[in-house]
Design brief:
Blueprint: E1 18-22, E2 49-51, E3 54-56, H1 82-89, E4 93-100, E5 108-117, E6 120-123, H2 125-132, E7 139-146, E8 152-160, H3 171-174, E9 179-183, E10 207-212, H4 215-220, E11 234-244, E12 259-262, E13 274-277, E14 280-297, E15 303-318, H5 319-330, E16 337-338, E17 351-357, E18 364-370, E19 375-382, E20 385-393, E21 398-402, E22 409-415, E23 421-428, E24 434-442, E25 470-476, E26 483-489, E27 494-501, E28 504-512, E29 517-522, E30 532-538, E31 544-551, E32 557-565, E33 589-596, E34 602-609, E35 612-619, E36 622-630, E37 635-640, E38 647-654, E39 659-666, E40 669-678
Antiparallel strand pairs: 1-14, 2-3, 4-5, 4-7, 5-6, 6-9, 7-8, 8-9, 8-16, 10-11, 10-13, 11-12, 12-15, 13-14, 14-15, 17-18, 17-24, 18-19, 19-20, 20-21, 21-22, 22-23, 23-24, 25-26, 25-32, 26-27, 27-28, 28-29, 29-30, 30-31, 31-32, 33-34, 33-40, 34-35, 35-36, 36-37, 37-38, 38-39, 39-40
């Protein structure tokens, strides 16, 4: 039997087992329960309060057997009706979609998210993983599509809960599977999060409501295609069936519950849906149980596998974990990861600005122009002298500029897209040497008189920098930002170099003044990652250098670095990999990867040498030979030697990451996507 046609729907060969898994993998049949009857009148002496859809009465009160004949007592506000609840949830619910750089690939729907702030969406950690770690092909941008309207918003940053790790066993039921997305566009409707007091009486039997995008519904009616379709989220009524804790030795209570078990019928795609009780979010839906079973057979005799809900046991992460993540984000204790974006990142801030430093000894004016792609150019005026400014701006309006004088002048600030105002600080020699504040406006004027003078003089006064000239090697030896770098200081104070992160190499540029003050930045912006900023001091006598490393802006210091002049090695760990040193097709590089396909999953390994490719594809116990070629633009094409169903692999190699990816097809039909990493 041909290995490619012996396809099953089993997960890792396990069939007929009840599994707990992420809803992005699919499951579910609705199992709504009827809402409890609401008593519409009570005795004069009773207290009727509604919390979470249930009713309580004071001890000693009596319920009239003929409530119609009794005087009506004051009734506390009732929970919103199911109709009103779903009406409020729909405009706040979004489908998360990946757009790929490969124009042949359709957008991939990955899960649900819901708005909880003007630019903030909540979802699951595993949905965030799907767009940051598990994407099967190079990503163009991540979008969210609003329920009902089809309005599209661009996601800028992914912030998973710091305790979330989807690679750990049973992570969906033992770790806070929640995350946040920030958006470029404002979100018009939001859902409120329940406080501790508002979930103090959370209990089995409480009615709850979900709203999300079940994958089977999308397939039945219309796929989520940003800018084309207007997907409608599905409302799913149900009830809480149990409260659970991550520690199975501890009894669950409303105060310590980590998970909410419920019976709202869900299926693949509803991961990240809000769980709402009485108009308030009490949880984030993330997983369910289901069974695998054989539903039929293919014409070649191979089994067809399907799955079904296991007693409609569904789970959501308690809202307290989401609130904790929001608090960490708002305090900047967690920052998350920038997401790829095809839009011009600084477009909302593009334009020309007039600004000035109006106080202190460094009073002067400057003007700068922000391009839509984030590049910044301008001039600073010191009396009769004009000095060129260069810099970068990001999608959040953060601004960094520097001049060509010695000591180097550094402008750090932020722009407001709505008001056109900008403000920040001015420093010389290093970010920590702040000498004044500046303000400016788009197309405006400032009162900063151009009477001061940069005491460092003109750009030609670099004679004393010669004592610092030479090549330096440095590193951040530990921590999450562990890497090595090297840079060369010229006699004019210009700095150039490279930073090596595993297989990736970034260019460094900067300046140093006669006092040894050093400032460098990398070119991470062009790869849509936060700019790395190196600030420090060089000791001319010892040849030693040291300082701080930050990302995105100078205040975001992540680690300390050290360097030495003339050092041929460093202690930066194992970051000695590749680098942008030539065409990968001429280097003899071996890759190993996986083809991700519902029908035809398998592994591949291949070697690229002198533009030629040789390798193998492995299908269980069957192996085929691969041959192909790579062009000068690093586009590759491979084909296996299966005489009946020859497989074709088309893709590209990323020289910065030494990762290859593309699509896999047979007889002109695409069956999956593949990704491989250099070994």
């Amino acid at each position: 039997m041909n290995a490619k046609k012996n396809v099953t729907g089993c997960v890792k060969g396990i069939c007929g087992l009840m599994l707990v898994c992420a809803l992005s993998m699919g499951q579910g049949c609705p199992a709504p329960t009827a809402l409890p009857d609401v008593l519409d009148a009570v005795d004069q002496g009773s207290s009727n309060s509604t919390t979470g859809g249930s009713q309580s009465f004071q001890s000693g009160s009596t319920i009239s057997s003929n409530p119609v004949s009794q005087p009506s007592a004051p009734v506390a506000p009732q929970c919103p009706s199911p109709e009103d609840t779903f009406a409020a949830m729909s405009p706040a619910t979004y489908a998360v979609v990946i757009e790929f750089k490969d124009p042949r690939l359709k957008p991939a729907f990955t899960g649900t998210a819901f708005a909880i702030g003007g630019h903030l969406l909540a979802t699951n950690g595993h949905v965030a993983d799907a767009v940051t770690k598990d994407a099967p092909s190079p990503v163009k941008r991540i979008l969210a599509v609003q329920s009902g309207t089809g309005a599209v918003v661009t996601l800028l940053r992914s912030i998973p809960h710091p305790s979330w790790d989807g690679t750990k066993p049973n992570s969906y039921s033992s770790l806070p599977d929640v995350a946040l997305f920030t958006t470029l566009e404002a979100l018009p409707a939001t859902l409120p999060l329940a406080t501790d007091a508002q979930v103090a009486d959370l209990a089995a039997g409480n009615p709850v409501y979900l709203m999300g995008f079940p994958g089977d519904v999308n397939e039945q009616f219309a796929p989520v295609i940003p800018g084309e379709t207007k997907p409608q989220a599905t409302g799913l009524p149900g009830a809480i069936t149990a409260l659970r804790t991550y520690d199975l030795t501890v009894a669950a209570t409303p105060a310590n519950a980590d998970m909410i078990q419920h019976q709202s019928g869900t299926s693949g795609g509803t991961s990240g849906s809000p769980v709402v009780r009485c108009g308030l979010v009490v949880g984030v839906h993330n997983s369910a149980t289901y069974n695998f079973f054989i539903s039929g057979f293919n014409s070649d005799g191979s089994a067809v596998y399907d799955r079904s809900p296991a007693a409609s046991n569904n789970f959501g992460v308690h809202v307290r974990h989401l609130r904790a993540l929001v608090e960490l984000f708002e305090s900047q204790a967690v920052v998350g990861t920038d997401l790829p974006a095809a839009f011009d990142k600084a477009a909302p801030f593009a334009g020309s600005y007039q600004a000035g430093v109006s106080q202190g000894q460094r009073v002067h004016q400057f003007q700068f122009t922000v391009q839509a792609n984030g590049e910044v150019k301008g001039t600073a005026t010191w009396g009769q002298n004009k000095v060129e400014l260069t810099g970068l701006a990001d999608a959040f309006g953060n601004l960094l500029m520097w001049d060509q004088l010695n000591p180097i002048g550094i402008y750090v600030g932020r722009m407001d897209a709505q008001t056109g105002q900008a403000a920040g600080t001015y420093a010389e020699g290093g970010f920590e040497n702040k000498l004044g504040n500046w303000t400016g406006s788009k197309g405006g004027t400032t009162s900063g008189a151009a009477t001061g003078g940069n005491s460092g003089g003109s750009g030609s006064s670099n004679a004393n920098v010669g004592a610092l000239a030479g090549s330096y090697s440095g590193s951040i030896p530990s921590g999450q930002r562990k890497h090595s770098f090297q840079f060369t200081v010229s006699s004019s104070g210009q700095v150039s170099g490279t930073a090596t992160w595993g297989q990736s190499v970034f260019k460094l540029t900067g300046k140093v003044d006669a006092n040894g003050k050093l400032a460098m930045i990398d070119d991470g912006e062009q790869y849509q990652v936060p700019v790395g900023i190196y600030v420090g001091t060089i000791n001319a006598q010892t040849g030693q250098a040291a300082g701080a490393y930050a990302e995105g802006n100078v205040e975001n210091v992540l680690n300390q670095w050290t360097a030495a002049r003339g050092s041929g090695s460093n202690t930066g760990g194992s970051n000695t990999g590749g680098g942008n040193s030539g065409n990968t097709s001429n280097q003899g590089v071996s890759f190993r990867g996986t083809v991700m396909s519902d029908q035809l999953p398998h592994t591949i390994q291949f070697t690229v040498s002198n533009g030629k490719i040789t390798g193998t594809s492995t299908w269980g116990s069957v192996r085929y030979n691969l041959t192909g070629s790579v062009d000068n633009n690093l586009n590759l094409r491979m084909q296996d030697d299966d005489p009946q169903y020859p497989g074709v692999y088309v893709g590209t190699i990323n020289i910065q990451t030494l990762q290859a990816s593309g699509v896999f097809g047979i007889n002109g039909n695409v069956y999956g996507q593949w990704v491989a990493q250099a070994q």
